[in-house]
Design goal:
The protein is of the alpha+beta class. It is built from two helices and eight strands; from the N terminus they run αβββββαβββ. The protein has one domain: Lipocalin (Beta Barrel). The radius of gyration is 19 Å and the shape is globular. Keywords: Membrane, Transmembrane, Transmembrane helix.
C-alpha cells in the first residue's frame, strides 16, 4: 500500500509540474498585439460566396486574460447589414510564438452550422475539436494565421 501512495504522490507532482509548464508557456507565448493590451479586441471581415448568394460578415473577438494565465476568446459574428448576430466562446492556448489553438466551449443556441460563414468552421460547430493555427505574419496591430486543419488564411487587426 505504501508503494501505491508513493506512486500517487509522484503522479500528482508530475501532473502539477506539467500544468505549471503549460501555464508558463502560455503566458510567455502570445501575439504581439497583446503586449500592453489587457483583454484586446480584434476584428476581421470576410465574404462567403455560395451558388445563389453572397454573404458579407464581420467578426469581433475579445481575448480575455483569465485565471492562471489561460485565455478565453469571445467572438461576435455580424452580417454587414447587421440583420444577424451570433456569439461563440473559445478556449485559446498559445503554444509558442508561431502556434496557437482554439476549442469551442459555447455558442448561441440558435447558431447552427448553416449560419456560420466559413464552411470548415460550420463543420467544426457540429463536431467540436481543438483547432491549431500557425501564425504567418504579425506586428503590433495585425496578425495573419493559417489553419493547420483546412489551410485557410485569415487576418485579424487590433481594434483601436
Amino acid at each position: 500500500m505504501k508503494i501505491i501512495n508513493k506512486f500517487l504522490v509522484g503522479y500528482a507532482i508530475c501532473a502539477s509540474v506539467v500544468l505549471v509548464g503549460i501555464l508558463f508557456r502560455n503566458h510567455l507565448s502570445h501575439p504581439l498585439f497583446m503586449v500592453g493590451n489587457h483583454d484586446p479586441i480584434v476584428y476581421g471581415h470576410g465574404t462567403k460566396f455560395s451558388e445563389h448568394s453572397v454573404y458579407r460578415y464581420r467578426k469581433l473577438h475579445t481575448i480575455e486574460h483569465g485565471v492562471l494565465g489561460l485565455y478565453q476568446m469571445k467572438t461576435t459574428i455580424m452580417s454587414i447589414d447587421e440583420q444577424k448576430t451570433f456569439k461563440k466562446t473559445y478556449d485559446v492556448h498559445f503554444w509558442d510564438d508561431e502556434v496557437f489553438s482554439i476549442k469551442l466551449t459555447s455558442k448561441d443556441k440558435d447558431f447552427t452550422g448553416e449560419d456560420e460563414p466559413d464552411y470548415s468552421e460550420a463543420h467544426i460547430l457540429e463536431y467540436p475539436q481543438e483547432q491549431f493555427f500557425q501564425i504567418i505574419f504579425q506586428d503590433r496591430e495585425l496578425m495573419c494565421y493559417s489553419s493547420l486543419l483546412t489551410n485557410s488564411v485569415k487576418c485579424i487587426k487590433l481594434f483601436t
